[in-house]
Write a structure and sequence with these properties.
Chains A, B: This is Methylmalonyl Co-A mutase-associated GTPase MeaB. 2 copies of one chain form a homodimer. By secondary structure, the first copy, chain A, is of the alpha/beta class. Chain A folds into 3 domains: 1-44, no CATH class; 46-255, Rossmann fold (3-Layer(aba) Sandwich); 270-321, no CATH class. In chain A, 57% of the residues lie in helices and 12% in strands. Chain A has helices spanning 3-13, 17-28, 32-41, 61-74, 92-102, 122-138, 153-159, 174-181, 201-214, 237-254, 256-287, 289-299, 305-320, 324-328; strands at 49-54, 79-85, 111-117, 143-148, 164-169, 190-193, 226-228. The longest helix of chain A has 32 residues, at 256-287. The radius of gyration of chain A is 22 Å and the shape is globular. Chains A and B meet through helix 3, helix 6, helix 7, helix 8 and helix 11 of A and helix 3, helix 6, helix 7, helix 8 and helix 11 of B.
Chain lengths: 329, 329
């Protein structure tokens, strides 16, 4: 390892915020030093409580995270927040607003906030996000929140690597309730109904209870708590923090924390490997004129997509195989 | 090609429904004969109008598709419907109900309805779904509807291979509106507001108009129509069919149909190739004890996930490479 990375790793393990910021940038930019760094600090991970936070846009996730951060700090814990931003140019304004809601924490050395942009390849992003969470863990954050927007499978993949998964909803989140009901979305560990001053809050809570009563129970005896909050006014946040603590205690005492982490780490290895293969493949499609010709054949309906895919894979295997150069001779 | 597959291909191209059903089962089960068949009939595809249909569960997509199918049949067109079912055991009841809504069409030789189950790997499912759509196209269906449930990236990947993308909403679809607004969900070509007898319908339509006015225009001069329907009573269906026809005419006249199909076919090749690589990888992880040992190292925090992924990829490349056997000697 180069001497400056060792220094960065040491500074990171000591909890230095600038070192952490630099490390996450290296990972986000997919730089070899970044991966090297994660490798170096990985034995020091596994101590943080990683909490995945998802829900449709507009429910006030950033405000909730701001309030949760404050509550965790009051309890003497250090916090990392990793926000996964969607790619659309639409969101620039919204995200700026979100970041402002978290500014009160920017000067607190016990809080580290970072957003990561989706640069098109969700596989790649979720890969980078998980590495980011590991870096925060290594830097000694007691609690790491990984926030993502949306209610689809790809978003769930990102937060599925957490110890505890929180779904944030609000009165009017009919689509998300239906998605839970239809089994499109997995049942989370904790549900928050934010903006609970809305008159339809109790109707919403009843609907959620109805959906939960239909489904199979979560692991063992865990009953998914539904916490009503008004994050903008700090209402219900203490209850939410307690619910997160209860879940953590529960999975720890039941031994499911270890099981979960084993499954999550396996998924992570597959996700990283798949993402790398996919990127390699896309690069070869972009750069290789003979692959472009294959695609022209597909468009002309002379070669079917599956055969083209098999051909691309065969050419790719030749290129990456250690035996390829021997064969070429 | 084996003689019985030739017969199946011939029967499929003649529009035989039983041959089509058999062909889709072969593809769904990932049988080599299925892929062979798609290869054989692929030159006869590209004639159908492929319409992707998505939206949160509960908005009445099956009822809409039933009504649309009736309307297309009245106009003398043959129809294929391919429904992509989510995996949860929760949905059994809902799907049975959905299928019942389509039963009036089961005896019509001009209508072919098929659902495909998600067996965990969405990549694999979307791959099979697209092959299914090609088979329906080859069997001479004039219109092929590909239906999917949900509002996330993975669901969009499935329908993104369509010529026209329809998003179905209903009054109360607040989460989906927010997802459109935040750019988490792509702007579709046509939006349907079903259950339009609800008092909040016009509020909903105004909200959608607001979101559409914020975003970048769709290709060229296309203005996304918002069609109000009450599918259960057949109201608004004629208007919806006309909107679909207008969009098809539009992309044809602008030349964007060819552009779209080129992009979609490229994405399809990448998706099939990635899905195959992923499956191969997962199999090697399941079956190879030495890979299991790698994972144990990851769980023990001695080996980081990215290094484990690199190691798994290296072992995999050795196995699949044509040069590997030479090297082993």
């Amino acid at each position: 390892m180069a001497p400056d990375e060792r220094t960065l790793a040491e500074r990171l393990l000591a909890g230095d915020k600038r070192a952490l910021a630099r490390a996450i940038t290296l990972v986000e930019d997919d730089r070899p030093e970044g991966w090297e760094l994660v490798r170096a600090v990985y034995p020091h991970t596994g101590r943080a409580s990683v909490i995945g936070f998802t829900g449709p846009p507009g429910v006030g996730k950033s405000t909730l995270l701001g309030a949760l951060t404050r509550a965790e700090r009051e309890r003497g814990r250090t916090v990392g927040v990793l926000s996964i931003d969607p790619s659309s140019p639409f969101t620039q304004g919204a995200l700026l607003g979100d970041r402002i809601r978290l500014t009160e924490h920017f000067l607190d050395p016990g809080v580290f906030i970072r957003s990561m942009a989706n640069r098109g390849a969700l596989g790649g992003l979720s890969e980078a996000a998980l590495q980011g969470a590991l870096l925060m863990d290594a830097a000694g954050r007691d609690v790491v929140f990984v926030e993502t927007v949306g209610v689809g499978q790809a978003e769930v993949d990102v937060i599925d690597h957490a110890d505890t998964v929180v779904l944030a909803l609000m009165p009017g989140s009919g689509d998300s309730i239906q998605a839970l009901k239809a089994g499109v979305m997995e049942i989370p560990d904790v549900i928050v109904v934010n903006k609970a001053d809305h008159p339809l809050t109790d109707t919403m809570v009843r609907e959620i209870r109805g959906v939960l009563s239909l489904g199979p129970a979560k692991e063992g005896a865990w009953r998914v708590p539904i916490i009503k909050t008004q994050a903008a006014h700090g209402i219900g946040i203490g209850e939410l923090v307690e619910a997160l603590e209860r879940h953590r205690e529960y999975i720890r005492s039941e031994g499911t924390l270890l099981e979960r982490r084993r499954r999550n780490l396996m998924n992570e290895v597959v996700a990283i490997a798949t993402s790398r293969m996919r990127r390699q493949l896309e690069a070869s499609i972009r750069e290789d004129p003979s692959v472009q010709e294959l695609l022209d054949e597909v468009v002309a309906r002379r070669l079917d997509p599956a055969s083209a895919a098999a051909e691309v894979l065969a050419r790719n295997a030749e290129r990456v195989s250690p035996g390829a150069t021997d064969q070429a001779g």
